[in-house]
Amino acid sequence: QVQVVESGGGSVQAGESLRLTCKISGLASRNKCMAWFRQTPGKERERVATLNSDGYVTWYAASVEGRFSVDQDRPKNWFFLGLDSLKPEDTAMYYCAADYYRGGRCQDIDYEYWGQGTQVTVSS
Length: 124
What we know:
Blueprint: E1 3-7, E2 10-13, E3 18-25, E4 32-39, E5 46-52, E6 57-60, E7 68-73, E8 78-83, E9 92-100, E10 113-114, E11 118-123
Parallel strand pairs: 2-11
Antiparallel strand pairs: 1-3, 3-8, 4-5, 4-9, 5-6, 7-8, 9-10, 9-11
């Protein structure tokens, strides 16, 4: 059984930083795509960043490039999102998603496994 569990969200002031952690269990030790998404009520879910676990290939949405960064602890199957220079518009529920790599780009695929989300709130 695959489990995806996010943690690390919280309430911060604009300009501050957070680090989100995604713990993935139940997936075999194969090349994977991992992604962070975010969503606010009434808006479509936004793909924020992705990582190909074998090649360490990353992708970022234009809205976060230069401020957010992804990383992984591959032996543990943990996936991280560093959020720097946070803005009020970054306020959202952040979701981690994972799937086996099947070719193509991780920023283009539909993900099979999802976490429950962790809330990030940025006040001005």
